[in-house]
Amino acid sequence: MYFNSVSELFSMSGHGSYVWFSYGVSALVLATLVIIARRRRAAAEQHIRALVRRKDATTSN
């Protein structure tokens, strides 16, 4: 292991706050992108279902 203790791991010779902040921001951005992608997919699927229902309603007459 590179660090001798957990406190050294978190402090990283005084640079830990920057490193862990960067990891946190990156994780937040990635999580936000996943959430946005899932919402857009759900909206697209709902839109496609509405189009199919509309087409089925017009062709059944």
UniProtKB/TrEMBL annotation:
**Where is this protein localized, as stated in its record?**
Cell inner membrane
In Pfam terms, one family for this protein is: CcmD
Q: How does it sit in the membrane?
A: Single-pass membrane protein
Chief location of this protein within or outside the cell = membrane
- Signal peptide (residue range): none
Q: Where are the transmembrane segments?
A: 20-37
Query: Which keywords accompany this UniProt record?
Result: Cell inner membrane, Cell membrane, Cytochrome c-type biogenesis, Membrane, Transmembrane, Transmembrane helix, Transport
Note the superkingdom of the native organism.
Bacteria
- Spell out the InterPro entries in the cross-references: Haem_export_protD_CcmD (IPR007078), Heme_exporter_D (IPR052075)
PANTHER family according to UniProt: HEME EXPORTER PROTEIN D
The family line of this record is: Belongs to the CcmD/CycX/HelD family.
Stated role = Required for the export of heme to the periplasm for the biogenesis of c-type cytochromes.
The name on file for this protein is: Heme exporter protein D
